[in-house]
Amino acid sequence: MKTVKILSFIYVFLNFLSCKTEQIFDISVKQATEDLKKGDIAFILSASAEDMEEIIRINQDAPFYAGLLVEEQETAPKLRTARLFEAGLISSSEQTSVESGKKLLSLILADETVAEYVLRRMEADVFKSPAFPGFSTLKAAALYKHGRFVDARKSANDSAVFEKWSNALSLTSSMRSGGTISGELMDFFFDGPVDETQKWAYEEIKSTEFFSSDLFETESAVLRGHYATSVFDYREGLRCFRPILDEEKALFYKYPYLIADLGRCFQYADADQGVNLFSEWDAQENKETDPIARFYLLFFAGRMERQKKNYTSAAAFFEKAVSFAPDREQKDACIWYLLDVLQKSDPESVVPFIAKYAPLWGDAFYFSDILDTLCQYLTTNHKWTRMLELFPVIRRYADGASFAKYAYIVGRIAAEGFVPDAEIQAFTGIDGSSKAFFRIAFVQKNASFYYRAMSARYIGESIEISNEVETNEPETLSFMRGFFEYGAAQFATVYIEEFLKEKKAEVWSENTTYSAIDELRAMARLLYREEYWHEAIQFLIPVWEKEGLNYSDMEIYYPRPFKDMIEKYAELTKVNPAVLFGLIRTESTFRSAVVSHVGAVGLSQLMPETAEETALRIKRQGGPDYVTDGLHLTDPETNVHIGSFYLASLIKSMDDSLMFNLLAYNGGPNRVKRWRSADTTLPDDLFLETVPITETREYGKRVSASAAAYGYLYYGLKMEAILADIYKR
Hints:
Layout: H1 2-18, E1 23-24, E2 27-28, H2 29-37, H3 42-45, H4 62-73, H5 79-88, H6 94-110, H7 112-123, H8 135-145, H9 149-155, H10 163-176, H11 183-190, H12 196-205, H13 217-230, H14 234-241, H15 249-254, H16 256-269, H17 271-283, H18 291-307, H19 311-321, H20 328-345, H21 350-357, H22 368-380, H23 384-397, H24 400-416, H25 421-428, H26 434-442, H27 449-459, H28 478-485, H29 492-507, H30 514-529, H31 533-547, H32 551-557, H33 563-573, H34 577-588, H35 608-620, H36 636-653, H37 658-667, H38 669-678, H39 684-688, H40 694-714, H41 719-727
Antiparallel strand pairs: 1-2
Helix pairs in contact: 4-5, 5-6, 6-7, 6-8, 7-8, 8-9, 8-10, 9-10, 10-12, 13-14, 13-16, 14-16, 16-17, 16-18, 17-18, 18-19, 19-20, 20-21, 21-23, 23-24, 24-26, 26-27, 27-40, 27-41, 29-30, 29-31, 30-31, 33-36, 34-40, 35-36, 36-37, 37-38, 37-40, 40-41
């Protein structure tokens, strides 16, 4: 990319020298900049496609973001859009340049007029970035769309930026120009999951003789099945695969990912036949069989048996598959399924298996739900000895959050005298008194504030968060920042998700680099400034899991949008504002229009029926009428007033602690009373660990932890004091 950056500098410099006017089209550069930042592109849509490169006078990155805006409004052919992305190729930002190339490639392949236009510019030597590393692929795409398949195949020779697209164009051009099926084509289509390049190539060759010739009947059937599976049409996938299973097993063994496809189809369409076939194939294995193929046979046989609720048989398949797992992620998935089916059949029996397989875990956080479900079972059934037996394994191999949870519960077991101190010490190797375990939970920086603050209460200490010096915003964020600087924020979501996925993988890779942590923090700050509260929080989750949050992180992780409104209704309904902030953050992360899968709406996630009943009570007591003109639960003020009033009514009607009111807000008051009456022997905090619905159980902890954080950050309160109030009867 160095050549591109040099050419970019030269182009911008020459453009500056040759510019005799400070205008873009018919308006000033200043006005154009202001309009673009507001997303107003009328001045671009009124200009000729030939003049689009003038947008670079705003900034060399601006054409890409302008292209996104224009693409949405320009009718076909999208020549202005194509010229803007062409101008974006010379950006000094490598990511902006590459993303411009991807968008231009997509336009070329979608529209013959755009393809002809770009090709004409390339062949006339006026295309703005012939040094762009993906230039030959862009040219190949234009040639292909123009029907010049032989030339397209010769041109498609990139080895870096668009390697897969180059490969797709080369192979598809060969097929369209009369070529025959080849091993290279099979490798391209079958060696892994379906991506956008393969989807495009598949659509292109569906109409060729490849699909109609008897010579390619097997390959055609497998290809159809492969693509049906990629769009979750498992019945169609199985219909395509079935006729060739007996004669063409070798093809599945050559491309093991096809076994995974076949396994998914059987799992959701015919698990009985699938288990029989995969068991038969596995029984016929020999020393030459690809271990990846064996892994998929055993792994999906286990998933089919799990689907049928044959948990013992499923466990046998998963346990056998572990040693064949091709990578850390697949091994974690296999072990997770093994522990899951063991837990479903006999929860107590999973304890020795956790001890056996925990040393093989790649990502400890992947197993936190298994440990949580087991904790709920052991606490509900008072299996204290089993929990003590498990504790040394948790201490060594589990994630910090799970370790803190188990340490706190063992501390409470000791404090309540459920198990003698000597027995606790014998199992754990730690002083059997409760304070030793509370201190373990207290010092876990990447644990929930719930367990840290609860532990602080018992050891007489307070949580203090360090305010470390923030690093500067990395240059790598310039691409993401551009979406907000140039009025294209509505297009940022997909790039935000890709960036988060990439950085999370880096954080948990075997060769972790702290630059990934810095980039996550910087991206969270950027999103916070732009009031993308939910997204900012998502970027700090892996930071917390890896090393904990500093004070500046916490202000982003626990933001206060709608501050005046939320504090107003907290005061009106006599609800602690820290608790109300914690509830709304937990419910919606401040997304006023969000609707849950069960129909709960808005900031405080109100069910319409409950909201209407509560709104009528507000009206009867002399408050606003939210009902007559229709209940608008996506309106922040309406939602917060009703939500705070409903929580306050629960507090008044339930003679219990605030924790039980919070559980009732999520799970319903009658259900919570029924759960509590089933076991009155446990103290309230241990009862919380027994709540059978995971969502409600975690809800109580998450709201409490958030309330503790809000109290600490903004209201001068200690976290442990907030938790003490939440449990006060």
